[in-house]
Specification:
The chain has one domain. Helix 3 packs antiparallel against helix 4 and helix 3 runs antiparallel to helix 9. The protein is built from ten helices and no strands.
Length: about 250
């Protein structure tokens, strides 16, 4: 929770500075409410996500959150806007297969640790994606800033209520802030993508992040890189040009 609060704080500062520096128009009431809703859903989801990565297998829990977080908005978009181009649908299927193969564990002796938290994170991410789409043409910088403000206030309140202890190492605080800068940048770019195209396309492309997570887990955490995961990463890469077809 402390790491997540610091992450949201760093993202809040970055996006607010960007919005003010760019003299972006402040959103209207509807845009403000949806941005705050996105921040509430995504803020708690990120806390669950960080915890699931820390308590379980990083290469498994990240794809689980991605599958849930991406599939729900895709189904909603299909229902409200109709089916996309057949080639894009093929890309969606290929991406889904890629994420599935990436998420396959080598062996399980019992329920994987952190899987329940990954499921909750995925549901929260889905809520974030859906709320972001409803911000319409509001400033992406202000939408991201408002979302991060709400996330920081909410998670910070949870830290205070639960009397969560502070960090024991200063380095952890800097890592949390750095993660917030990256997360806020991703939030801003996703909002712009959702504003300029179909939500399902933006969500599926964003949900391919487990390929990077698995690769980093292999490099830094020495997690096993199986042939199935290699196939999944290849499928995810091949899906990208199909999905962006217009």
């Amino acid at each position: 929770m402390v790491v997540t609060a610091l992450s949201h704080f760093g993202g809040m500062i970055l996006m607010t500075a960007l919005a003010v520096g760019a003299h972006a128009a402040f959103p209207e009431r509807n845009g403000i409410l949806w941005a705050l809703g996105a921040g509430a859903s995504g803020g708690v989801a990120l806390a669950f996500f960080y915890r699931s990565l820390g308590s379980g297998t990083m290469g498994l829990n990240a794809p689980v959150a991605a599958v849930l977080g991406g599939s729900i908005p895709v189904l909603v978009t299909f229902a409200t806007q109709g089916l996309p181009h057949p080639v894009q649908i093929a890309g969606f299927v290929l991406a889904g297969l890629g994420i599935w193969f990436i998420s396959q564990p080598d062996h399980l002796t019992g329920p994987p640790e952190g899987l329940g938290l990954a499921v909750l994170a995925g549901l929260g991410f889905a809520g974030f994606f859906l709320c972001v789409k409803q911000t319409g043409g509001s400033s992406a910088a202000w939408s991201a800033a408002l979302a991060k403000i709400c996330s920081f206030v909410l998670v910070g309140a949870l830290v205070l209520v639960r009397h969560v202890g502070g960090m024991t190492e200063r380095g952890g605080a800097w890592v949390g802030l750095a993660a917030g800068l990256l997360d806020a940048t991703g939030t801003y770019l996703f909002i712009r993508a959702a504003q300029t195209g179909r939500l399902d396309v933006a969500v599926v492309l964003a949900s391919l992040y487990p390929a990077t997570t698995v690769l980093l887990a292999r490099i830094f955490l020495k997690e096993r890189f199986t042939s199935r995961r290699a196939f999944g990463m290849a499928a995810a890469i091949l899906a990208m040009p199909l999905i962006v077809l217009r």
